[in-house]
Write the structure tokens for this entry.
Amino acid sequence: MAEQQGREPECPVCWNPFNNTFHTPKVLDCCHSFCVECLAHLSLVTPVRRRLLCPLCRQPTVLASGQPVTDLPTDTAMLTLLRLEPHHIILEGHQLCLKDQPKSRYFLRQPRVYTLDLGPEPGSQTEAPQATDPTTTPLPIPIPSHYALRECFHNPQFRIFAYLMAVILSVTLLLIFSIFWTKQFLWSMG
């Protein structure tokens, strides 16, 4: 795929610029790159789900039994060009799911989960018609469990942080106590 000067690389199907979320570039066997959203749509409408035809050259890419399009190789050269790190995106039914891990060093935060609805399965008339434009909606954040708290204590960065806080608190209390004791001692002598 050739790109023009000064323009971001984009998916040749939807013309959206590549990114590291729902427009992550995935490589087919013919070495053409498309965003994972377009490939997911394509995989849902193909009669044979194990075989994807390239939208540009029509060369088939055979998927293993039960393998979703999100498991196709990511075009890491494209993400490197865009200075992005790949995220792990999964296909669950008719939704693309992205689990975003916050990059916090010392505090345990719950990951955010984003989904992209790809619409109803073709041929099924049981669902109400939806808008053609897919929407992105965050899922509810689960309540932290004791297991998550236990994982926090096993994190070496959290342990270092806890030890440093304990040392700082101990030194501060020692200084306050010694200042108070010195004042009491000097007042009693005078």
Observations:
- Strands lie at 25-27, 33-35, 51-53, 60-62, 89-92, 95-100, 112-117, 136-138.
